Amino acid sequence: MKKVALVVTVVLSLGWSAHALAAGTVYPFKVKTIDGKPTTLAKYKGKVLLIVNVASKCGHTPQYAGLEKLYEKYKDKGFVILGFPCNQFREQEPGTNAEIKAFCTSKYNVTFPLFSKIEVNGDKAHPLYQFLKKAEPEADGKTDIGWNFTKFLIDRKGHPLKRFVTKVEPEEMDSEIGATVAK
Hints:
The structure is a single chain. The chain is of the alpha+beta class. Strand 5 (151-154) and strand 6 (160-164) form a beta hairpin. The protein is built from 6 helices and 6 strands.
């Protein structure tokens, strides 16, 4: 009984709710907007989501343009991209949240939601990413995020559907996102 209580305590301290674990959804996770305001992903219930760890000084940073195109194409059909800046990969996201927001909006005209900088791997990995990595490991079974611009497709019920590695360009996901949005 002590082991069960310990597991529950650890799970709750990580920001996971019993509902998230049981239902396997992203909705209960607590996050902060790029402006530092606390929220949960519950505000996106019923939407198809693409959750992406992003960086401003990466060779893959131009994917912002493709992501914005996908967002513009499908946003009126219930699709939202959620960008989570991360500085864990060769410190390619060194700026403050305000600097990141300014860069994304001025350089790539990003209009999809951005969130406060987080960690996606290691002991300080955000609970959302701990959940996503376990729900959708890479094809070889690895769970850690390999690099910036790893993408997770989430269905309208909040369940992770698929993980796309960094090298998958946003345009390559178009038909799969379109099919998921159409469901």
